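Researcher: I've been going back and forth with a colleague about how Ig-like domain-containing protein might be arranged in three dimensions. Neither of us has a model we trust, so I'd like an independent prediction. The organism is Anabas testudineus, in case that matters for your notes. Sequence below.
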Amino acid sequence: MLFLLVCFPNVFLLLKVSSANISINGTRGEPLFWPCYHTFSEPFQPNNSLIYWQGCRKPHILLHAYVYGKEEFQHQNRSFKNRTTIFPDQLPSRNFSLIIEPLMLQDDQIDIEVIFRSQIKSTNRFCQTTVYVAAPFQEPKIEINRKEKTATCNTKGGFPEPEIKWSSGDRGTNLKPHKPSTVIFEEDGTFSVSSTVSIIGLQNVACEVYNPTSNQTLTATKEVSVPPPGNKSHQCPQPTEEPSTSERAGGEAADSAFNMPEDHEPKETVSLEENSQLTKL
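Model: Here is an independent structure prediction for Ig-like domain-containing protein. You can compare it with whatever you and your colleague have in mind.
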């Protein structure tokens, strides 16, 4: 097993490299470093060597070429023009790595390998690799339709097609989409995705957008607070019985008694005996 030290600005990577089939992931618009390190028993002779970085499948796409001591671009595939870089000074130390910059969506799932030919040794094929390209999705947004009692999660601008999962934040359970997701393949090669779930009986929902190539997950949450079916949030007041005439009269009398003015005092009464004595006087 071999190790290759790769240096970029502010980044140092120690890569474990082998000649077995591997896969590498990259991001659209950024450089992709394809590590390849292979050893031979005989010394490297650049003036007697042919090296091709090309696609494994037919028709073979030529990414880069090194012919008898110098780089050759005449037969390079048009889609890789001015996008590939090798390390000529490190070829004697068997560093056959390649940089693709910028990485494009059209590079996704391309199978590439190195072909080495020399006058001394027969053709060698090594570093078979599959390239996977990702583009980050925009932050998902959740829209609530209270009339239909549904929530819709929308995102766009990413690649490849994402996986969308719904969950209930208050219950912590997964939710089944209301209907199959709507997936649109845009003109620029990216995807726009929309997914809908029912929110009946839920307090809040969460939508997760997972990119299988970049292994990135974006999450959006939303409070919904939709009452469950059959739950009446507003109730009409119960009608009251009309009081009878006697009850109304009694009530009015009671009210008049309680509403007596504060300065009103009951008059003093005089007995018959006291009245007769006052008459004699």
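Researcher: What would you highlight for our discussion?
Model: I'd start with this: The chain has two domains: 2-134, 141-223. After that, consider the following. The chain has a mean pLDDT of 82.
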